[in-house]
Amino acid sequence: MNYGVFICRIPNIIPLFSLSLPKLFIHILDNPHDIKYKVQLTSNCWKSCSPQHGHYPPADQGKLTFQNIENGTTIRIKAVHAQTASQGKTLAELAEKWDQGFTFAPIRESQVSRAMTRRYFKDLDTYAESDVVIVGAGSCGLSTAYMLGKARPDLKIAIIEASVSPGGGAWLGGQLFSAMVMRKPADAFLIDLGVPFEDEGDFVVVKHAALFTSTLLSKVLAFPNIKLFNATSVEDLITRQTADGNIRIAGVVTNWTLVTMHHDDQSCMDPNTINAPIVISTTGHDGPFGAFCVKRLVSMNQIKELGGMRGLDMNVAEDAIVKKTREIVPGLIVGGMELSEVDGANRMGPTFGAMALSGVKAAEEALKVFDERKAQNAY
Predict the structure, then answer these.
(1) Residues bearing 2,3-didehydroalanine (Cys) (predicted)?
(2) pTM over 0.90
């Protein structure tokens, strides 16, 4: 149960912050003992506040103290119930007692059905009007979601992934090998994520690509404002005509992937929709579901033609993908290898730094235009 959100913007006029190590006391009106505080600090100018975000124990006398916070910092505090110990048995209590009366708690099959369907359809209702839709849950799309989730916990973010299993090609390195290589400075993303690596000078190596992807995925799914709809395809884009006769993207058209794959041999089955002022497409290079959004732009005459992905050149490709991550048409930002199809960029092969940092830049680009696109998306 949430007790509410307290947001405080520190103005520049408070004399307290003229001190070398200023302190700020945040007063929480309701402070029962079973509450913890989830704190996130966001600012363009903060230098040293550790931890930047995290969980704090119940505050003494309704106060939280933050040190080394600069002027202009925004503080968001969300009070939630602290997790309590499970009323069930511990694993230690279960150990080696499987033949001594072990049994699962009773359940009726309909309870399972209702537990799943109630939550899923509630999510469909909640995210039918989203703030950001990310198409594709590969390494770039998940990196985008991670950055947006950290920066803007107030936004509703839906991720649409055609496959049952998110992660794209980032579960392995090249040629079915385990290790994942990232060129510097992408190690900064790994450090932020908390993924260990071996430093090889100009590049770093994660011992197994699945360690990176599973860590990133788990952190993204833990954000309360992000919902992943996997086994779901984007079949089209929602558009609005602009004053100059072009279009603005206003959301996506979705369907279950199994339905999408069988339109040719089954009767017509209409799709669903999600409205959003920002769509971020990270569907990878051309393929059955790859580069979908940019291919759709061509068919709608918003792009004359695709440039087509060129041969492999790691040094050229990774720089180009990150630098050119951008809004292609109003409301549609493209990142990752889908950009190679737009710009005729080189492929990069089994190195993943550009995927992560393209996601970082895609999140930045989205936040730059979000307020403007949201105002335009009122209808």
Answers:
(1) 268
(2) no
- Contact in structure between 327 and 274 (CB atoms under 8 Å): no
Retrieve residue 136's tokens.
Answer: 């594709």
Residue finishing a domain among 34, 61, 81: 81
Contact 130, 276 (CB under 8 A): yes
Q: Could you list the residue range(s) of the whole structural domain that residue 12 is in? A: 2-81
- 162 assigned to a ligand binding site: yes
> Does 81 carry a binding-site annotation?
no
Amino acid identity of 238?
I
**In-domain check, residue 99:** no
Residue 337 counted as an annotated binding residue: yes
Contacts with 216 (C-beta within 8 Å, 6 or more apart), sequence order: 139, 142, 143, 146, 193, 195
**348 assigned ligand-binding residue:** yes
Q: How far apart are CA 352 and CA 170, in angstroms?
A: 8
Residue 143 is assigned to a structural domain of this protein:
yes
Q: How many domains does the chain have?
A: 2
Does the annotation place 314 within a ligand binding site?
no
**Is residue 270 a known part of a binding site?**
yes
Q: Does the CA dihedral 193-195-198-200 come out positive or negative?
A: negative
Asked if residue 27 belongs to a known ligand binding site, the reply is no
Is 285 part of any known ligand binding site?
yes
